[in-house]
Amino acid sequence: MATVARLNSDTARWREMDRLHQLHPYTEFKSYAREGGRIITKADGVWLWDSEGEQILDGMAGLWCVNIGYGRDELAEAAYAQMKELPYYNTFFKTATPPSAELAQILSEVTPKGFEHVFFCNSGSEANDTVVKIVRYYWNLMKKPEKKTIISRNYAYHGVTLAAASLSGLSDMHGQFDLPLDKGFSHIDGPYWYRHGGDLSPDEYGVKVARKLEERINELGPDKVAAFIAEPINGAGGIMVPPESYFPEIKRICKAYDLLLIVDEVICGFGRTGQWFGSDTFDIEPDLMSIAKGLSSGYLPISGVMVGERVAKALLASDEEFVHGFTYSAHPVACAVAIANLNIMRDEKIVERCGAETAPYFQSKFRELLDHPLVGEVRGRGMLAAVEMVQDKARRAHFPNEGETGKLCRSYCTENGLIMRATRDSMLCSPALVISKEEIDELIRRFTVALDQTAKDRGVTT
Ligand code: PMP
Predict the structure, then answer these.
(1) Which among 127, 213, 378, 425 could disulfide-bond with 406, CB atoms 3.0 to 4.6 Å apart, if both were Cys?
(2) What is the pLDDT of residues 394-434, one digit of tens each?
């Protein structure tokens, strides 16, 4: 503490307190403790400012979550009013609060047909852990207790708690923690046409890769498999957009083998695909849906599991207590903020306007980057875009040390005042849905500079 007190600029003090005492998510502790990080102090629209006053374009809407953009007073006012009236009460033991009831009603209106019930949690991970429990409970209620395994996909990101990380298919999430858990998790390939499609057309490949589900069900035994879970568009794994043929085949297989179909809408939900839900975009008709991020545009933590008719019917027919719930399930302040967020989305037609105007513009601008010598593929939908960087476009050849080029490009983005994410050598972008066309132009301008700098360092001629 003594050192910190002697530092005279705010930045230096915050950096020192942070460096010495805070352990950060997804961060190398050793180098961070030595070097520290940057301090973000305020935000408005799609812009962030750091403690030195530098203005940064947030191409990731935080962590894919600030769908309506930063700085909306209505959400701050909703939180303040709710904190004064009832700052906390829980929803255990036959109790509700006005905001929890109202938010549940609104969700039944904005989510796809057939979703009349929600169970509230606080994060995407908690929502997916809750999904795992609901799936197990459902098949126990249906007197098929042997139906337990949930099949998920390689490259999937479903969260970091033990069950959600077990569902996830990014292998580096498993090694440090002896995951996946021993029982009930199985992974198959998901669609990644650019890398694995070979000579097949996207649609031929979509069917082929969907049939991996059928193969795995038959390997495990259909009577052992409980459910299949997927993000509509895989997010953190690299924004892999499924071919149109993929989900129809997945739906057929889930029906044929009596699997629950679960969609993780944590990123795709609330407008990210240019429609309200990824399940609308791909006509998935799932049985369960996890939601988070855009539900409150990240202003406060809140998530939920939307429970469709089939599962709700079984749950509602049971006389026993559901032995699950979080202290902060349906926190009244988080619910009030989510209501204000969804009201803004509906009143200002943010999703519809984004889907009709901004998203097509965003996609077309990103597609223009295909001319860049470093860019092998541009993929995306709605306000999600990925740029995959390769060493040799003609041969689709990747750089030998995968991930290094992504990290390099990400640092150049940061130097140029732009936040993008890197997954392997793909650069990911997911800005607020309210980004303007001028701001998209500025984003592309900064990103192109970063791509040029990366290409130069990697010896790819521009
Ligand atoms: N599902 C998906 C698709 C996600 O992208 C994430 C987080 N990025 C999660 C679940 C986990 O959410 P959280 O970090 O809120 O636990």
Answers:
(1) 425
(2) 899 999 999 999 999 999 999 999 999 999 999 999 999 99
Residue with the two structure tokens 């191409």: 59
User: How many residues are given for the chain?
Assistant: 462
Hey, how many other C-beta atoms are within 10 angstroms of the C-beta on 296?
Answer: 28
Residue 309 in tokens:
């008719």
Residues of 228-252 as b/e, b for ≥16 C-beta within 10 angstroms? bbbbbbbbbbbbbbbbebbbebbbe
CA–CA separation, 60 and 410 (whole Å): 12
Residue 412 and residue 450 in contact, taking contact as beta carbons nearer than 8 Å: yes
Q: How far apart are CA 232 and CA 356, in angstroms?
A: 20
**What three-state secondary structure class fits 120?**
strand
120, 279, 293: residue to mutate for ligand 1 pocket, most atoms within 8 A of CB? 293
Q: What six digits make up the tokens of 349?
A: 């037609």
Which distant-in-sequence residues (6+ apart) come within 8 Å of 24 by Cβ?
32, 37
Sequence-ordered list of residues with C-beta below 8 angstroms from that of 319, at least 6 positions apart, any chain: none
> Which residue puts its alpha carbon closest to atom 1 of ligand 1?
158
Placement of tokens 């530098």 in the chain: 54
Cβ count near 223 (within 10 Å): 11
- Indicate the pTM of the whole model: 0.97
CA of residue 213 relative to chain centroid, distance: 22
- What six digits make up the tokens of 213? 């589900």
What are 99-125's pLDDT values in tens digits? 999 999 999 999 999 999 999 999 999
Ligand 1 first shell, C-beta below 6 A:
63, 123-125, 128, 157-159, 231, 235-236, 264, 266-267, 292
How far is C-alpha 454 from the geometric centre of its chain's CA atoms? 27
Which residue from 155, 153, 174, 180 is spatially nearest to 262, judged by alpha carbons?
153
Contact 170, 155 (CB under 8 A): yes
